Amino acid sequence: MHPHVRLGLAPTRRNVFSKETALEQKRLTEEKLKSWNVDYLGLDWLNQEGLLYDPKDVPKVADKFRSEEVDALFAPHVNFGTEAAVGKLAKALDIPVLLWGPRDDAPLTDGSRTRDSQCGLFATSKVLRRFGVPFTYVVNSAVDDTIFERGFRNFLAAAWVVKAFRNLRIGVISTRPSDFWTVISNEGELLEKFGIELVPTTLVDVVEWAEKLLNSRELDDEIVQLREKVDYSSVGEGSFRKVVALKLAMQKWVIDEQLSGIAIQCWTALQKAFGVMPCFAHSLLSDQGIPVACETDVHGAISMELAQAATMYQEPSFLADLTIRHPEDDNAELLWHCGPFPLSLAKGKARIGKHFIMESRSPGVSEWEIEGGDLSILRFDGDNSQYRLFASHAKGTTGPFNKGTYLWAKFKNWARIEEKFIYGPYIHHVAGVHGRIVPVIYEAAKYMNGVEFEPGEPEIEEIRSWLREEVDEL
Fold it and tell me: Are residues 129 and 178 in the same domain?
């Protein structure tokens, strides 16, 4: 279901430098990628060397990479390289581009040099700028240096985010709640500017799908698996079956329509039509890597998908309200929502209860604190035809008990984060994810035309310093 990233490997050389040394550096680079289990397509089919040095070869390389569904281009300069060939290939493909070259050896005893990889990188970067091609650069370094690994892995994760962004299909269940002007989105503009498709359906359809599953073997099997994981005694078997049936109905819709995520009107029409809150259904789907955003927050669903893509789908994302400041810590904030946080993140006993705010007191909300540790928050949002992508690191911390699903998150300077959200174009919803993804989002945003990256913590120069390995942690 999730997009998979394949790398196009186009090592490049220039004729006036040592071919033998270039081939050795190509071999070392390929061995390193294989040791990291990177899915890549090289150029061994192109010529005897498997190297790009003739600009006339660019059309056939571009055609091959497209036909093999390559998602990102890596052009290691195994000697000086051929800047025209790399520039034309990058321009033709319109995918994320990584520039790097192995650090040059000392001059030979006769004073000659075999590669001059660093010099060639200066040349290629200038050509890419002339072509208007965004690119990522890892500082000239040895293939075994940790700075190369750090930069390469960050680029690869960014490529996952870019692929996710360029293939977004968000299922929209009903309209926004009438009181929530904050979640207004522009469907036409999302399609025109970014190619993001919204696939609508109604609550009537979803309830009908769920009702057909209420007596199914599929639902029985799901309930059996959940009985040991959650305490739903306070809501009763019948209501619990309805919530899980909603999960199965939405899951089937996602698969049938090949959706990236869902934005659903979770209150109040659903409670009138089906008698339950869908929060626990959101929790289960998000745990499976299917983001579900509350209150028909389309931008929230997009944010959730990008957040989990930044971890290469190793961590589930969750949609949280920025709710209240910590009563005793000025730099901590409550990340909370009625109950959609993934079950796998629950800290302690997981319970399903009745809504404590809604007048209906409908059953189906989840009640647990989630695990802390290293966190990131992310928000894709826009207004007045301008879009931004905000991301910040945080850490889980302790705080007072809350109903619903929640986590207290500590920042270095919360007042600064709060101010950025107030001035916008953001709202009170953010995607949360475990891990530290800001450098990934910084890199990915280069390839999201029409989207401006806005950092929370760390700032851009701190991110660059980390990528240059001047600091160990962010």
Answer: no
The two tokens of residue 444 are: 């990915």
Give the mean pLDDT of 60-83: 97
pLDDT attached to residue 84: 97
99 close to 34: Cβ distance less than 8 angstroms: no
Closest CA to 408 of 438, 373, 454: 373
DSSP state string for 404-423: SEEEEEE-S-HHHHHHHHHH
Same domain, 313 and 412: yes
Average predicted confidence (pLDDT) for the chain: 96
**The pLDDT of residue 352:** 96
The pLDDT confidence band at residue 456, using thresholds 50, 70 and 90, is: very high
- The C-alpha atoms of residue 174 and residue 270 are separated, in whole angstroms, by 10
Tokens of 329: 């810590």
> Would you say 319 and 279 are in contact if contact means Cβ atoms under 8 Å apart?
no
- What's the mean pLDDT in 189-211? 97
CB neighbours of residue 266 within 10 Å: 28
Report the distance separating Cα 188 and Cα 195, nearest Å.
9
Q: Write down the pLDDT at residue 168.
A: 98
Type of residue numbered 301: A
> Degrees (nearest 5) of the Cα angle 388, 382, 268?
130
CB neighbours of residue 69 within 10 Å: 11
Here the CATH number for the domain that contains residue 35 is: 3.40.50.10940
Give a yes or no: residue 371 inside a domain: yes
Asked if the model's pLDDT at residue 1 lies above 70, the reply is no
Q: pLDDT tens digits, residue range 203-245?
A: 999 999 999 999 999 999 999 999 999 999 999 999 999 999 9
| Inter-residue contact 280 to 352 (CB < 8 Å) | yes
Contact by Cβ (8 Å): 474, 436: yes
Whole-number Å distance between alpha carbons of 74 and 5: 13
Separation in Å, CA 73 to CA 34, 89, 137? 16, 9, 12
221 and 129 co-located in one domain: no
